[in-house]
Amino acid sequence: MAPALSRSLYTTPLTSLPLTPTRLSPLRTAFLPRAGGGLRAGVSCSWNLQKRCSRFAVKCDAAVAEKETAEEGSGEKFEYQAEVSRLLDLIVHSLYSHKEVFLRELVSNASDALDKLRFLSVTEPALLGDGGDLEIRIKPDPDNGTITITDTGIGMTKEELIDCLGTIAQSGTSKFLKALKENKDLGADNGLIGQFGVGFYSAFLVAEKVVVSTKSPKSDKQYVWESVADSSSYVIREETDPENFLRRGTQITLYLREDDKYEFAESTRIKNLVKNYSQFVGFPIYTWQEKSRTVEVEEEEPAKEGEEEKEGEPKKTKKTTKTEKYWDWELANETKPLWMRNSKEVSKEEYNEFYKKAFNEFLDPLAHTHFTTEGEVEFRSILYIPGMGPLNNEDVTNPKTKNIRLHVKRVFISDDFDGELFPRYLSFVKGVVDSNDLPLNVSREILQESRIVRIMRKRLIRKTFDMIQEISESENKEDYKKFWENFGRFLKLGCIEDTGNHKRITPLLRFYSSKNEEELTSLDEYIENMGENQKAIYYLATDSLKSAKSAPFLEKLIQKDIEVLYLVEPIDEVAIQNLQTYKEKKFVDISKEDLELGDEDEVKEREAKQEFNLLCDWIKQQLGDKVAKVQVSNRLSSSPCVLVSGKFGWSANMERLMKAQALGDTSSLEFMRGRRILEINPDHPIIKDLNAACKNAPESSEATRVVDLLYDTALISSGFTPDSPAELGNKIYEMMAMAVGGRWGRVIQEEGSSNVNTKDGEAEKQLLLSSYSIVDVPIKLRLNKTCCDCGAYALKHLECSLLGLNLSLVDDEIIMDCRQKIGVDLWEAAHNPIFAEVMTRYVPSPWERSEVFDLEDD
Description:
Blueprint: E1 28-29, E2 43-52, E3 55-64, H1 84-94, H2 101-120, E4 136-141, E5 146-151, H3 158-164, E6 167-168, H4 172-182, E7 207-215, E8 222-228, E9 235-238, E10 249-256, H5 258-264, H6 267-277, E11 285-300, E12 317-331, H7 348-359, E13 367-373, E14 379-385, E15 404-408, E16 411-414, E17 430-435, H8 450-473, H9 477-497, H10 502-505, E18 510-513, E19 521-522, H11 523-528, E20 536-541, H12 545-549, H13 555-559, E21 564-567, H14 572-579, E22 581-582, E23 585-589, H15 602-611, H16 613-623, E24 629-632, E25 641-645, H17 652-659, H18 667-672, E26 676-680, H19 685-696, H20 701-717, H21 725-740, H22 758-772, H23 779-786, H24 790-802, H25 812-822, H26 824-829, H27 833-838
Helix pairs in contact: 2-6, 8-9, 9-14, 23-24, 24-25
Organism: Brassica cretica (Mustard)
Protein name: Histidine kinase/HSP90-like ATPase domain-containing protein
Keywords: ATP-binding, Chaperone, Nucleotide-binding
């Protein structure tokens, strides 16, 4: 079996092999000149054997026969020296990273031997003879600790054994290919793998002794090559035992080391290695496996109790079944390389079946693409989009998902590229890439030319986006909905990491919006629905769809029928910020300052700013450094105020995400946090009341409390996190006490209770009155002053009802007297919510926001 290159990507470090000097055989290397003309004319060479540190070294003493001419220079020329044992030690122990790669290398050599025979038999049919089918068989023997690999290929003569196995770094396959190129008539497409000439020596990764028995159809004799790991020599002898004769081909027997017997002499382990590395080799590979079968046997039927066996009568038997184990050959590479076929000849069922077998999946893929590229780099590929996303969130950002399997001439090379062939955001794509001429290193672990890798990467990415685009444009909308649910996060990650492919990624994005809260909307659909005066794509980033719907930032935009995209996933905001524009439309965050809606009334805005300029300054003075400034808003219609972020800082959503980082830098939070701007709604009653307060009672403590509570409320409704939740909670509790205190007839002080002091009860009553008095003037006095006027009393009662106060806190005599005067119907009407809503604009303000309305005149 002609040795070929090594091909695996997975190798484990090995301990160095000590080389003890035995006898020196005719071992040659590529560094030593062959007989008959290695050195140029005029140079003689004598070879001396020297012992160095328990090793033998071959040294060449070259003498220049004649003086170099002036043109050649006056420097002295030397020949390279090679320490054979050290060179072999480096190849075995420093070339590969995993021991298991030895099987891939030897199977590849066997495949090359079979390919050579098939190619040569076209012109020389006699070479096939009666050697049997072209196949490879692998038989592990756990009892003896051996692995035997047999092929029915071209075999080797004695001279070829010396030339191929006795010369390190000489590839028989490379010489064969060179001969084919020189003979153009024979140059056909071939799948030969070897090129480096060192793959055979990977056998010493696990073997302490290697025996190669080979029979070439060109020779009548069979030869045996034998070498041990700790020797710098080998032995070739003629096979004389008829039991070991081969009809044709090569048989390699590895005598495993003690440490490797239990792993690599196990039949299941060998089968799995073949499936991983050599599943798509063009020849059948059989492995010796233990199997089980059900057989039918006859057993003696036991005699029944009380019955005596009669002499001479045949015993009764019955047929039963049992399971027995046996050993037999099993085909290990039944899956065929589908990418080698024409895509027009492969059905969808065949693609799905290949996907399930190659990647151990149980669901059909969402889509696939099968293509061949030619030019500077030629390769074939099949790519799949899985039917289900990764269950582990770590796989979303893990570039080493092992989903892309690289083959060279159908032999597995690697699936560990760390983002070299596919970017991280497309790591969910699964597929196979096969090429015949990739520039690999000797151990077949690394793609050497980065330029070639970049070309392959570019073409694979383009084909992947074409495949996703086809799903999005298909008539079955459920397919892309399923794709987006599973892999939408990956594409959003691509917006951040791959600026060069923004034009391909952006049309594939989907979001919920204010006009379509049930179905996802594309950016193209958003632009189609834009109004004539709309110049930007508006979005709002929140933590959930529910909070986005109720955000105060939306009020004026919804009123003007402007669609807003809802970014509800943590990655959404960063992805959109990296896009910046789409089809010449800028992305605008409606939670930040200087929002322009395109149809502002400049005159009205200027008048509102002039009217509430004093209020803005007064609120800024009350809040201090909590806000950068206070201004009149153009985005509110029903809320009294909202807290927006500065243009260049974090939004409320981003600030929340950064605080939640497990390894976040808290020192950067203050630096990156955007400035906060309080925007007020000039049309809201609370703001009008505050405007009156800043003019008539700027020092009022009650007004200050309203401003603080207003700010805390805006903080939460705008998506920010309060600095002191407990303090805010106390304010809410106080407000709740005002709203529900005594509403359902709770008696402050029970009559007849001897344990309650009358003075204490009166003090509690006065305390409640003062705490419930949101206005500067106590409610009790105002009611006493106006109780004689039934209409005014009803109005005052309405005010108390709206404020959530209970009139039972006022003198009972006055209440009963006034209730009789105004009548029960009007009294009950004051508690009616509809009536209260209608009368809201007539409720007098403590800061004289408007005149007191007389109910009788209405």
